Amino acid sequence: MAFWTAGAVGLAIAYLLGSVPTGYLVGKLLRGIDIRDHGSKSTGATNVLRTLGKWPALFVLVGDVLKGVSAIIAARWFCPWLYSELSPPPTASDLQIWVPWAVCLAGIAVLLGHSRSIWLNFTGGKSAATGLGVLLAMSWPVGLGAAAIFGVVLAMTRIVSLSSMLAALTAIVLVCAVEHPLPYRLLVIGGGFYVIIRHRANVQRLLAGTEPRLGRNGRDAKAEA
């Protein structure tokens, strides 16, 4: 019972961290606008870049990554602490079994919080940056590998959505290729496909050859990663 109580608290913390609407708040504070009324209508960093500029976008990007990092840290450290406070201290084997599952659930919760924020009527971004934060905190080699692919593809194509989706696929391959607990693998596989599904409109534009690239003017704000 104590573990489930701790797990529920951890999930709530992770979801609320993810729900912090960084892009929305930046739009309101800097220009008094609802970022969801502009460009792709997403709260992510790419839409902020096209609507408000590079420095606000950088702030949003870092903030969204930190949300993912914070959720995993909370799950990895807070849940075992709370578990030990609510019951006799857990054994090392208990923690080895349950903490990875707590991390898995927290990762899912923070991704859902970012894309379905309770403060924005369950709208939000596409969870790519927050997903990167989850990867870096959970398994930094997988996170760095995904980030490297994102950077290379973006440099070659200047298409953020394509870069994000290929980074998500890379993370799935890496987490399966290197030894990781089963819950970590399930998180990355589920989270990776969730990020791709969130880009389904971008996929349609990619197939039609109409997906805009960074640095172009006019209608390029209609796609966002």
Automatic annotation (TrEMBL):
Subunit structure, interactors included: Probably interacts with PlsX.
Function, as annotated: Catalyzes the transfer of an acyl group from acyl-phosphate (acyl-PO(4)) to glycerol-3-phosphate (G3P) to form lysophosphatidic acid (LPA). This enzyme utilizes acyl-phosphate as fatty acyl donor, but not acyl-CoA or acyl-ACP.
Subcellular location(s) per record: Cell membrane
Assigned EC number: 2.3.1.275
Keyword Lipid metabolism: yes
GO biological process assignments: phospholipid biosynthetic process
UniProt organism field: Bradyrhizobium zhanjiangense
Alphabetical keyword list: Acyltransferase, Cell membrane, Lipid biosynthesis, Lipid metabolism, Membrane, Phospholipid biosynthesis, Phospholipid metabolism, Transferase, Transmembrane, Transmembrane helix
GO molecular function terms noted in the UniProt entry: acyl-phosphate glycerol-3-phosphate acyltransferase activity
Protein name (Swiss-Prot/TrEMBL): Glycerol-3-phosphate acyltransferase
Pathway(s) it belongs to: Lipid metabolism; phospholipid metabolism
Catalytic activity: an acyl phosphate + sn-glycerol 3-phosphate = a 1-acyl-sn-glycero-3-phosphate + phosphate
Membrane topology: Multi-pass membrane protein
Similarity field: Belongs to the PlsY family.
Top-rank lineage group of the source organism: Bacteria
Gene Ontology cellular component list: plasma membrane
Transmembrane segments: 6-26, 57-78, 98-119, 131-153, 159-178
Pfam name, any one: G3P_acyltransf
